Amino acid sequence: MRKQIMLIDDDIFLLNSISTYLISQNFSVSIFNNAQSALDQLNKKLPDLIIVDIMMSNIDGYQFLIIIRSNKLFYDIPVICLTAKGMTKDRIKGYDSGCNAYLTKPFDPNELLSIIKNLLKYKKEIQDIVSVSHKNKLENFQTSNLLLIGLTTKEKMVLELLVKGLRNKEIAKQLNISIRSVEKYVSKLLGKTSTRNRTELAQFMIKRINKGE
Predict the structure, then answer these.
(1) Selected residue with higher pLDDT from 134 and 196
(2) Pairing assessment for the beta strands 79-83 and 28-32 based on DSSP bridges
(3) Are residues 15 and 92 in the same domain?
(4) Residues near 79 by Cβ (< 8 Å), separated by ≥ 6?
(5) What does pTM read for this prediction?
(6) Which residues are bridge partners to 101 per DSSP?
(7) Cβ atoms within 10 A of the Cβ of 68, count?
(8) 8 forms bridges with which residues in the sheet?
(9) Are residues 105 and 151 in the same domain?
(10) Count of domains forming the chain
(11) Alpha-carbon distance 98 to 170, whole Å?
């Protein structure tokens, strides 16, 4: 069965070009030129992945992310953000709002395809391994149970909470530090584990947990 992708952008030309490409790659694509119509559709049918533009009128991409991440029915849908903005602070805002990956326009369609495949693969792995026992394993996960060389105590604390699914704001509250500090620790963890984003980092750690390394 084809994976269903929801594509949201107020640029009709971009909507058509991206959807045509993804359909050629054997995906099923539903397109929307505003966030509200996409939210209405979400209440009827859930996609496997969402691609959303940040800069839109009325409800922008950041607001869209906040809405779906606050709803338990949509919380685990992978989201890729598209934007003309390439500033670090804009990317951070996107990640803090709940996006899984970030692409700055213009981008290579092959890079988009690679990110989509990676996120869908990760989602499937999570669905395959999340059982009662695995869930308990994650909830009781402690970095002291694994051989993690080169991590500071604070980095290990951040990592434990990240693997358990907490977002930056929630991690900051738990550890009583600033969101900016959490971002710095996550950035260091990405470098030390040779992963590109939070999704890959969590995936990397879950595999180690399952192997008992």
Answers:
(1) 196
(2) unpaired
(3) yes
(4) 49, 50, 51, 52, 65, 68, 98, 99, 100, 101
(5) 0.61
(6) 80
(7) 21
(8) 32, 52
(9) no
(10) 2
(11) 12
